[in-house]
Amino acid sequence: MTPFALTDIFNHSTVEVLDYSIFNSSLSQLKFDTKCLISTVNQYSYMVAEKDEDFKKALIGSDILLPDGIGIVAAAKMLNGETVKKIAGADIHQHLLQKLNLEGGSCFYLGATEITLAAIRKRMAKEYPQVKVATFSPAYKAEFNAAEDAEMIAAVNQFNPDVLFIGMTAPKQEKWAFKYKNKLDATIICPIGAVFDFYAETITRPSEFWINLGLEWAVRLVKEPKRMAKRYLYYGPAFVYELFKAKITHPFVKNSVDQRHIIA
């Protein structure tokens, strides 16, 4: 089997947006030769992190931070004059599965219900038959105790996957992944939340038409008004306020190039 973790290293560009270094390259350029934590940030997670120090620390401490939301794309343009392409959790999920299938790698899904995980395993067997898959459904609760954390880490490490996908909802999943990154025997760790349900098809993601228009958020709001109303109708305007405040109070910041580990 061709090893999933390759040794080639390239530069990929990042853009500084509101305290964060946002990935601004193509996923096709990525190569990883060491453990890598990939997280996503959008206007909702940005606003939540402003009041949750541990969450903000986890996002800033990620090796790669993807711009998962039209709000972050707009912020990069408004504050930096940079064009950044939105990369959702579903995009990195698909990219990694294609790589794993090509190379005969393995992945582990940690999170969600057993019903959702069973649907994921069934779909994986059809679409990515060369990928070895294992799953674990943790207790549904706000915080895990030490024994539960140890049980999850042991389950992951016993399988020793190339990629660990975590779906525990934000900000719990990002904080958990950051806290235990160095104890997890996985090369790539990705907290991707709702992607578990999208891939299991327990929740339908808006079509490419709406995604390309930058209106995925609007479709999700219509489909799940109770769950999404606060995220978009409260945090959305609050985020816009933060953008204008940053535009007035901070100088123009040019994008920077950062050394990162990359996957072919």
Distance between the termini: 16 Å
The helix content is 40-55%
Radius of gyration: 18 Å
Query: H/E series, N to C?
Result: EEEHHEHHEHEHEHEHHHHE
Structural class: alpha/beta
Q: What is the tally of helical segments?
A: 11
Describe the protein in words.
With 264 residues, this protein is of the alpha/beta class. The chain has one domain. 46% of the residues lie in helices and 17% in strands. It has 11 helices and 9 strands. It has helices at 43-49, 53-60, 70-80, 89-103, 114-127, 146-159, 172-180, 195-200, 208-212, 216-223, 225-249, and strands at residues 11-17, 20-23, 36-41, 64-67, 106-111, 132-136, 163-167, 188-191, 256-259. The strands form 2 sheets. Strands 4-3-8-7-5-6 form a 6-stranded parallel beta sheet, with helices on both faces. The longest helix is centred in the last third of the chain and has 25 residues, at 225-249. The radius of gyration is 18 Å and the shape is globular. Mean pLDDT is 84; it is low at 1-11 and 255-264.
List the helices and strands and how they pair.
Blueprint: E1 11-17, E2 20-23, E3 36-41, H1 43-49, H2 53-60, E4 64-67, H3 70-80, H4 89-103, E5 106-111, H5 114-127, E6 132-136, H6 146-159, E7 163-167, H7 172-180, E8 188-191, H8 195-200, H9 208-212, H10 216-223, H11 225-249, E9 256-259
Parallel strand pairs: 3-4, 3-8, 5-6, 5-7, 7-8
Antiparallel strand pairs: 1-2, 1-9
